[in-house]
UniProtKB/TrEMBL annotation:
The keyword Ribosomal protein does not apply. Keywords: Coiled coil, Endonuclease, Hydrolase, Nuclease. This is YicC family protein. Residues 1-155 form the Endoribonuclease YicC-like N-terminal domain. Its cofactor is a divalent metal cation. One of its GO terms (molecular function) is hydrolase activity. Residues 172-292 form the Endoribonuclease YicC-like C-terminal domain. Residues 148-185 form a coiled coil. It comes from Thermodesulfobacterium geofontis (strain OPF15).
Length: 293
């Protein structure tokens, strides 16, 4: 089991520069990768995203890269000579036609910066990747270890809640026969009272028994209890799977649906109290599951 929260750090140091990568992970329904890269490594954005997505399936992953050194900020001044020459010709003609007396200076050219370009020295992508891969890989491994460690803690918490859930479900199992018997007796008493009160003599027996079967089915919560136990068993097994967060959340929804229907059918104050406890436990399970990848 893997948590979606964690932190990792990786450092690569050469004689002239140091690259530090920070990797942080938070909760998210999906995989959401955000990058903060120095300009030098912006061309590697897609490659970094792909690399991260191979290691993680869920969570908001924030990757920050910091560089300190002398060899990482080399720039070249690139001059578009042809554009500058055309600009000079146009400015000279404009000066002549408008009668300007001041001579052209370099500051006049700087007003038209389109022809003057400052660019980082172009590097091969593979070389850039060789620089950033070691600290990135180290940071992601540390992040994975952090998430797995936190995941084990979460699993232990889930197991505690699950054992309590089993105990409460067992209490309902013990009360089931008595609760169903009591409900049937109440139903029988209501039917007898109706017959006496309204002096019913002629009834449609087929319709009567159809309605009786329907009412008896409404007070029998055996199926709901059995399905609840199946979901608990399924939950326990699913905790051992990878990337189980979404599946566990779905199982919790199903458990909540079953205990809600069961409580309505049971018409028992004792079972209603236990059902409230079970709902609270399911909610606690869901709170923890929001952190699971």
């Amino acid at each position: 089991m893997e948590s979606m929260t964690g932190f990792g750090k990786g450092v690569f140091q050469s004689d002239n520069y140091t690259i530090t990568v920070y990797a942080k992970s938070l909760n998210s329904k999906y995989l959401d990768i955000s990058l903060k890269l120095p300009k030098r490594y912006t061309f590697l954005e897609e490659r970094i995203r792909k690399f991260v997505s191979q290691e993680f399936k869920r969570g908001k992953i924030e990757i920050q890269v910091k560089c300190v050194g002398t060899d990482l900020s080399q720039k070249e001044v690139l001059i578009d000579i042809e554009l500058a020459r055309n600009l000079k010709t146009s400015l000279t003609r404009l000066k002549s036609e408008l009668g300007f007396e001041d001579p052209l200076t370099f500051s006049d050219f700087l007003k038209f910066r389109e022809y003057l370009l400052l660019e980082e020295k172009e590097e091969e992508l593979d070389k850039l990747w060789e620089e950033i891969y070691p600290p990135l890989n180290e940071a992601l491994k540390a992040l994975k270890a952090s998430r797995l460690k936190e995941g084990e803690n979460l699993k232990n918490v889930l197991k505690i809640y699950l054992e309590k859930l089993k105990d409460e479900t067992l209490q309902i199992e013990k009360l089931k026969e008595k609760a169903i018997k009591d409900s049937k007796e109440k139903l029988k008493g209501r039917i007898d009272k109706l017959f006496k009160e309204f002096n019913l003599r002629e009834i449609d027996e087929n319709r009567f028994y159809q309605e009786l079967v329907y009412l008896l089915d409404k007070i029998d919560f055996t199926e709901e209890l059995d399905r609840l136990k199946v979901h608990i068993f399924h939950f326990e097994n699913t905790m051992e799977e990878e990337d189980c967060g979404k599946k566990l959340d779905f199982i919790c929804q199903e458990m909540f649906r079953e205990i809600n229907t069961l409580s309505n059918k049971a018409q028992s104050s004792e079972i209603s109290i236990i059902a409230v406890k079970i709902k609270e436990l399911i909610e606690k399970l869901r709170e923890q599951i929001q952190n699971i990848a």
